[in-house]
Amino acid sequence: MFDNKNSNNYKAIAASNGIKFTETAVIFLAFVIALTHILAMYFGWYFDTRFDWIDIPLHFMGGIFAAMFSWWFGHRFTRFNIFHDDFFKNILILISVAATIGVLWEFFEFSFDYFVVSQARFNWLNLAQPSKADTMADLFFDILGGLTAGIILKIGSKRAK
User: Fold this and answer.
1) Would you say residue 114 has pLDDT above 50?
2) Higher pLDDT, 158 or 92
């Protein structure tokens, strides 16, 4: 899958479509998200009322990451490309990918709360999902991140032409 033919094809597609989301950008965003999450867990920012907003930018960046990764993956491995020439179809796909990843993350948080936090013998663990409002806000920012990535893609493709 990583032969020269596919690499050259990817470069040609990237050049013709103005794809700005490279492997480096996807990796950098994943690194920023992971580092921020690790720091928030280590320093307890998720559970400190002064930093209770910290998951908002993480979910927003997560939505952008999911959309960027799916766009990159679809254009890097053309066999799996589900994108179209129609901007609105692509926006719908990017939002759907971001929302799906967001829902899967919320399932993970729910499972963590159910199987780990509720079973803890000591009260040192806090809920990953403290309320329905928190879950809905998380999903909203995941979707907003996917929409933002789609708009950035559109702007980038116009500049490349």
Assistant:
1) yes
2) 92
pTM for the full model?
Answer: 0.82
Domain boundaries, the chain: 4-160
Lowest mean pLDDT segment, chosen from 2-11, 25-34, 109-118, 131-140: 2-11
HEC profile of the chain = CCCHHHHHHHHHHHHHHCCCCCHHHHHHHHHHHHHHHHHHHHHCHHHCHHHCCCHHHHHHHHHHHHHHHHHHHHHHCHHHCCCCCCHHHHHHHHHHHHHHHHHHHHHHHHHHHHHHHCCCCCCCCCCCCCCHHHHHHHHHHHHHHHHHHHHHHHHHHHHHC
Residue 80 φ then ψ, to 5°: -105, 10
CA distances from 43 to 30, 51, 59, 149 (A): 20, 10, 19, 30
2 pLDDT exceeds 50?
no
